[in-house]
Amino acid sequence: MKQNRRKFIASVVAAGASIPFASALNNDFKSQTEKKFPLRIFSKPLDSYDFDFMCECLVKSGIGGFDLTVRPGGKAEPADVETALPKLCAEAKKHNLALDMMVTGIVTAADPLTERVLKTASSLCIKHYRLGYYEFDYKTGIWESLQKHKATLKDIVDLNKKYNIHGGYQNHAGTRVGGPVWDVYELLKDFTPEFAGCQYDVRHAMVEGANAWILGLRLLAPWIKTLAIKDFTWVTGTGKPRAVTVPMGEGMINWDLFFKTVKELNITGPLTLHIEYPLLEKDEDKLPLAQQREIIVRKLKKDVDFLNGFLTKYELY
Fold it and tell me: Which CATH number fits domain 24-313: 1.10.3720.10, 3.90.1150.10, 3.40.50.1950, 3.20.20.150?
């Protein structure tokens, strides 16, 4: 009896294992712009390279586009956004890559660069951007600080509406706003998810809430429009545990529970792959660029294949 094709595909990528030929399944997916979960890469670890080199790495590894750094020290400087960003978008298009996401340092509408960045991005059909981070002021008070930031965010949301772009606040482990995750709900609950939301980061959520992270995911679901993807594990060096990002599938994230819940809650949007482990080992950065590219692509493709395995397993097309 012939095996059902979908069941066959699911079986060969079951459990999201890093299967060498899993990237071939991309042919069964919709185009990157039509997917419910288009795959992008947070460009930071590649920003030191020429943009053409970056594009080649993405094409060869099966990543559909960029989540580009448009912030001080990033691939595009905010002060030069009107000239730099259109050039990068045009170059990405030549490689058939999307540039529809960006990472910014935006924390206030009062900064004159904020509107320049959003206006330019909107004109280039960039749909999502990540905001900068807010800090708690202990003297002002935790709750009071949060209310102050909400008032500041309101002016940013007004600009988002004006330029039809979505601003996402990333939850991030630590003591600033977004560490506990629940504070992001207070920050966002009075804003329409169309223009202000959360870039949910399961790695950082699990660091701060090993078991409770799933509650934050459920609470924030209506505001989650992008998902930051990376894995981590705990290490102890001097007796003090610290979270270290590792390649996909080599860490502690319960990817089955994560993707099962994402599907249940009907969360959709771009996945931005965060590579926060070394792409090159010691002295490999001295190798010819062609060899560096080969090493980088191999590592990126391993993560992509792992991720595609889960997207297939849970039919998140």
Answer: 3.20.20.150
